[in-house]
Amino acid sequence: MYRFWPAILLLCTLASLLHAQPAASVLIVVNQSSVLSRQIGEYYAGRRNIPSANICRLQATTGEEISRSEFDDQIARPIGDYLRRHNLIEKILYIVTTAGVPLKIRGNLGLSGEAASIDSELTLLYSDLHGHEHSLPGGIPNPFFSKTVATFRHPDFPLYLVTRLAGYDFEDAKALVDRALLARNRGKFVVDLKAGDKTQGNLWLLQAARQIPRDRLVLDLTRTVLSQQSDVIGYASWGSNDPDRKTRVLGFRWLPGAIMSEYVSTNGRTFARPPGNWNIGAWGDPRATFAGSPQTLVADYIHEGVTGASGHVYEPFLQFTPRPNILLPAYYQGRNLAESYYLAIPLLSWMNIVIGDPLCTLGRP
Questions:
Q1: Rounded to whole angstroms, how far apart are CA atoms 263 and 322?
Q2: DSSP string, 47-90
Q3: What pLDDT does 21 receive?
Q4: Of 315, 308, 327, nearest to 164 (Cα)?
Q5: Which runs of E-coded beta strand occur in 138-197?
Q6: Both 152 and 218 in a single domain?
Q7: In the chain, how many domains are there?
Q8: Are 134 and 212 in a shared domain?
Q9: Same domain, yes or no, for 187 and 158?
Q10: How far is 350 from 74, CA to CA, in rounded Å?
Q11: Which of 107, 130, 164 is a domain's end point?
Q12: What is the pLDDT of residues 66-124, one digit of tens each?
């Protein structure tokens, strides 16, 4: 019987290594100029046992919006140098930015503009470091988009999956980390269509619903905006682009591990906290305008209890928002948070942001 012990020990060692590998595949980006960024980075590193060598510390401005040259000099170049210096270019699969690291790059908007989110630009740093610098302006097709049966690894997919730990304050960001560690594959996927809409947006929502077991699905096809739902683990809708939505929060009770996505152009525009009496409304209404827009905010979902979220810092156009028919089934089937979102995002160097711990997973159903 003792002849089996070496094999058992080998299996235990391999299991230990496999368990440890995800932490070693994460690079945390901390802005030393921001107390909040330092707090979040240190907390996440401790909770996920991220190696100290996998924490890249920058000295950058703390404003949410920066110029392209500031991005190059203060963020992209220092991170690239750090990855080279620590021999991490191939080892890192996921980059986690933290609140206090700038959010977006100003520039011309539109399909041929140079404006983008910081995080989406950083996805292409892997390719840049291999001598294939991506072009500007405009977005770059995501090579991982819709590759639902593929393993995410280098060099098969020449990009980093970038997520952000952010919220209205440290407690919100801390809760993202804590909830990710408690995630389990249970609860309801809530899919809320916009009544009468004939665009692909509703089609993608319906396709998402068809891939979720009926006993795990809440689907609404009417003008009713679903609210006060309990045990929610996933949510997709039109957000404030549904004219029947009148409130900025839904009153959901979210389970640990819950994710959300909505077709809203500017829901990731800021993580500044609005006044308590602010509410969404119509374009042109100054009472409904906060940070330049009357639309819903991803940060409200985080504050209410989600573990993962997607948003847009500027207008992304419907066709380049995350596809719920890819996102929700991938997450339900056990893909981690980062892979689930990036499977569903068509463009990089674009307006998208993903919020949450990239390693968060529900596990297999």
A1: 8
A2: HHT--GGGEEEE-----SEE-HHHHIIIIIHHHHHHHHHTT-TT
A3: 52
A4: 308
A5: 140-141, 161-165, 188-192
A6: no
A7: 2
A8: no
A9: no
A10: 19
A11: 164
A12: 999 999 999 999 999 999 999 999 999 999 999 999 999 999 999 999 999 999 999 99
pLDDT bin (cut points 50, 70, 90) of residue 293 is: very high
And the tokens for 5? 């012990």
User: Is 291:307 a contact under the CB 8 Å cutoff?
Assistant: no
Structural domain range at position 186: 182-355
**Exposed / middle / buried, residue 313 (Cβ in 10 Å: 0-12, 13-18, 19+):** buried
% of the chain exceeding 70 in pLDDT? 94
Residue 8 within a domain: no
Radius of gyration of the chain (CA): 20
Contact 128, 134 (CB under 8 A): yes
Tell me if 6 is assigned to some domain.
no
* 122 belongs to a structural domain: yes
For residue 211, what are its two tokens? 């891939």
DSSP string, 89-129: TTT--EEEEEBTB--EE----STT---EEHHHHHTTHHHHH
pTM: 0.93
Residues 146 and 190 reside in one and the same domain? no
State both tokens at 364: 């297999």
277 lies in the same domain as 307: yes
Sheet strands side by side (includes 161-165): 55-58, 26-31, 94-98, 161-165, 352-355, 308-312, 254-262, 232-237, 188-192, 217-220
Query: Taking all residues of the chain, what is their mean pLDDT, rounded to a whole number?
Result: 93
Q: Report which residue type is found at 326.
A: I
